[in-house]
From TrEMBL:
Lineage: Bacteria, Pseudomonadati, Pseudomonadota, Gammaproteobacteria, Pseudomonadales
Coiled-coil segments: none
Family in the record: Belongs to the class-III pyridoxal-phosphate-dependent aminotransferase family.
Gene3D superfamilies reported in the protein's UniProt record: Aspartate Aminotransferase, domain 1, Type I PLP-dependent aspartate aminotransferase-like (Major domain)
Cofactor (UniProt): pyridoxal 5'-phosphate
Origin species: Pseudomonas monteilii
Name of the protein in its database record: Aminotransferase class III-fold pyridoxal phosphate-dependent enzyme
UniProt GO molecular function: pyridoxal phosphate binding; transaminase activity
The UniProt record lists the keyword Transferase: yes
Length: 414
């Protein structure tokens, strides 16, 4: 009798008690059967699934840390605070210290507020932007991901037209489209949202022009609206500052998540003095938003960001991986597009079909060989990835290209 893998046994149980067995961005309906479903433990750049197999992970729990899983420095800080208390009737003194540290590091930031995930932060920014001048319209780039609340989720099931009644869309990196969107609402602009670069699933990533970033800032100033830069996915991955601050285009609000808690659940909204009064008026809260343990982890995270070469090392590893895979793809006759920064790589095959047979096939073969890559979502490297990890990954991707070439040849001859 065949013994089920534990992942399949768990999934059978999950289907009885969890709608669909899995939900959200981790739903297995989007991946092949070669991918693991449930994990037992994690450390550094590695994951172990419930069947005991180890993977070099390039998803990083969809980007929740900069230094790898369970960084001992961050874990020690979190454990020390856990011995004192976490969720209490009010915040710990760490909240004040963390706000001071963040505003000291990020050019445009004069104040900070804390929550738990990216959707919390982007939704808080929306409320504050509307409170700022009593305007209603929120301008978003078409297809840009700013979270999974009703006003911004990419999946419309269960969402009504009323949920999006005051959302106005324009084309990313298109000044003319943005200006038309602003004109269409006749002075009722509360905020314009922007991501530091375009990083949506299924599409090539790209950076906007400086002229576009400057135009967003200009139009916000002309409309007396707030510019919101969404750093949830990019926080401290490309810079130790807000990415648009580095361009000289300073937002009024910025949203931060994923990395800032060092793997612990924490996100933040940072703002300039321009938006301070509006931020003080709104009512936003959450039962676990002010937990002290994630803030202790965040303070240690920021210390490592400031005092180590984590960023430079991560880019070095990203470039090494990108160059190796690029050489392999050419040699095996595939056109693989690697876009965006190498620390957040997006890999898509030119000429792939609608169900991404090439992408799913190649990443499925790689994951069978212990390298966890994703077929259509941008990935994340951490400073815990070593040259040895990259070389081992390239061995897996080399074999995956060989397997993919055989699969493609068999399909062609069938």
């Amino acid at each position: 009798m065949t013994v089920l893998a534990r992942k399949n046994e768990l999934f059978e149980r999950a289907q009885a008690v969890i709608p669909g067995g899995m939900y959200g961005h981790q739903s297995i309906m989007y991946l092949t059967e070669d991918f693991p479903l449930y994990f037992e433990r994690s450390e550094g750049a590695y994951l172990w699934d419930v069947d005991g197999k180890r993977y070099i992970d390039y998803l990083c729990a969809f980007g929740v840390n900069l230094f790898g899983y369970r960084d001992p420095r961050i874990e020690a800080a979190a454990a020390a605070q856990a011995a004192k208390g976490d969720s209490m009737t009010g915040p710990s003194a760490l909240m004040v210290t963390l706000a001071e540290e963040l505003t000291g590091m990020i050019t445009h930031a004069d104040w900070a507020m804390f929550c738990k995930n990216g959707s919390d932060a982007t939704s808080m920014a929306m409320v504050i932007a509307r409170a700022y001048r009593g305007k209603r319209k929120i301008l978003l780039a078409k297809g840009a991901y700013h979270g999974a609340s009703a006003w911004n989720t990419p999946v419309m099931e269960g969402v009504t037209a009323e949920d999006r009644a005051h959302i106005v869309y324009f084309d990313y990196d298109d000044i003319e489209s943005l200006e038309a969107a602003v004109k269409s609402v006749d002075g009722d602009v509360a905020a314009i949202y922007a991501t530091p670069f375009r990083h949506e699933v299924l599409y090539d990533q790209f950076f906007p022009s400086l002229e576009y970033a400057q135009a967003v800032r200009r139009l916000c100033d002309e409309q007396d609206a707030l510019l919101v830069v969404d750093e949830v996915r990019t926080a401290f991955r490309l810079s130790r500052n807000c990415n648009w601050d580095d361009l000289g285009v300073h937002p009024d609000l910025s949203t931060w998540g994923k990395t800032i808690g060092g793997g612990y659940p924490l996100s933040a909204l940072l703002g300039s003095d321009k938006a301070r009064e509006a931020a003080a008026k709104v009512y936003v809260t959450g039962s676990y938003w002010l937990g002290a343990v994630p803030m202790a982890a965040a303070l240690e995270t920021l210390k490592i960001v400031r005092t180590t070469d984590y960023l430079e090392h991560t880019f070095k590893m990203g470039d090494l991986l990108r160059n190796g895979i690029a050489e392999q793809a050419v040699r095996h006759g595939f056109e693989l597009r690697q876009t965006g920064p190498s620390v957040m790589p997006q890999m898509l095959f030119t000429g792939d079909d609608e169900i991404l047979s090439l992408g799913r096939g190649w990443t499925g073969e790689a994951v069978k060989r212990g390298a966890y890559l994703h077929p259509y979502h941008n990935m994340f490297l951490t400073s815990s990835h070593t040259e040895a990890d990259i070389h081992q990954t390239l061995e897996a991707t080399e074999d995956a290209f060989v397997a993919l070439k055989k699969i493609a040849a068999n399909k062609a001859s069938a």
